[in-house]
């Protein structure tokens, strides 16, 4: 009996808090779901990278959109995935690029529906929201890839020198995915606030 009362009491407290601080509750739910999706990415990206490593994709260069130079004078690419395995001094090639982008695509599809239906409880049109979300994802992916050019090589080199090629690469995979996820987290929240609207007097559309 006391347990039932305690459960009701906690539920009432939560509903009162939610009513007084709706923005904070949204952010907390966004944070929880984003972290769950991040864990998925940390597992999926190294797995895909490992699988693609057995194909010719790893020796296929993918360096696109030059935008200036690195400190050593080499060309700085927005998408910089030189041919060859990272452990052998390469950039991961097309295998690394696809592992990252496929992981992000799967993660963002899951994130889209969870954030829309659970966090923001949006009842606005799903098609329009999906289009804007996709556009945002493309722009964020480009920005995150360009940023990766600053930290990818130093992180992998440091981790491989510290823990060895295999373990160091695995640790670096997780760290780079975490950084990528962190960038998406802070950029996506205000975007979702705009596209996942809740229209008064309209029934929630969860389909």
Tell me the layout of helices and strands.
Layout: H1 2-20, H2 22-52, E1 62-69, E2 75-81, H3 93-119, H4 126-163, H5 165-195
Antiparallel strand pairs: 1-2
Helix pairs in contact: 1-2, 2-3, 2-5, 3-4, 4-5
Strand portion, in percent? 5-15%
The count of strands amounts to: 2
CA-to-CA gap between the ends? 38 Å
Q: What sequence of helices (H) and strands (E) makes up the elements?
A: HHEEHHH
Q: How much helix, percentage-wise, in residues?
A: over 70%
**Main sheet strand line-up:** 1-2
Largest sheet: 2 strands, antiparallel
Overall geometry: elongated
Radius of gyration: 21 Å
What's the average pLDDT?
A: 85
State the domain count: 1
Give your account of this protein's structure.
- The protein is mainly alpha-helical and 207 residues long.
- The chain has one domain (2-195).
- It contains five helices and two strands.
- The protein has helices spanning 2-20, 22-52, 93-119, 126-163, 165-195; strands at residues 62-69, 75-81.
- A two-stranded antiparallel sheet has the order 1-2.
- Helix 2 runs antiparallel to helix 5 (165-195), helix 3 packs across helix 4 and helix 4 (126-163) packs antiparallel against helix 5 (165-195).
- The longest helix is centred in the C-terminal third of the chain and has 38 residues, at 126-163.
- The radius of gyration is 21 Å and the shape is elongated.
- The two termini are 38 Å apart.
- The model has no long low-confidence stretch (mean pLDDT 85).
